[in-house]
Design brief:
Elements lengths: L2 H24 L7 H18 L1 H16 L6 H43 L3
Length: about 120
């Protein structure tokens, strides 16, 4: 359910970053920002996607626990497991997407800055 909100925002953000990258490539006064723009586009998208991989694994966790026989016997442990799964599946996509996107953005800016500082 949270991906219903996350996915449209991801698509709109990637579209806006793509337009910004094209503008930086075509407008001569913005050409200095092109190395930053395309790296932010690539790395923020990758960061968002890679950060959601552990969240996708949470969807398979109940089935894996059931098939391996590791489902908790006590009611207290089962309730704790349910709470963790519900919190992870409801808040996980939002948190993981934000952390991955901003982490990827910072990584892209850092790589562009490092590239701009290297001697040619």
């Amino acid at each position: 359910m949270p991906y219903f909100f996350v996915l449209p925002m991801f698509v709109l953000t990637m579209l806006a970053l793509s337009v910004a990258t094209v503008l930086c490539a075509t407008v001569p006064k913005l050409r200095w920002a092109l190395p930053f723009a395309w790296r932010v586009l690539v790395w923020s998208g990758m960061g968002c996607i890679f950060a959601n991989v552990p969240v996708f694994a949470l969807y398979a966790l109940p089935l894996a626990l059931d098939r391996t026989g590791l489902t908790p016997e006590s009611e207290y442990a089962m309730n704790a497991l349910r709470i963790v799964l519900v919190a992870g599946l409801l808040l996980g996509p939002i948190v993981a997407s934000a952390v991955g996107f901003f982490g990827g953005t910072l990584f892209g800016v850092w790589r562009a800055y490092r590239q701009s500082q290297s001697p040619r």
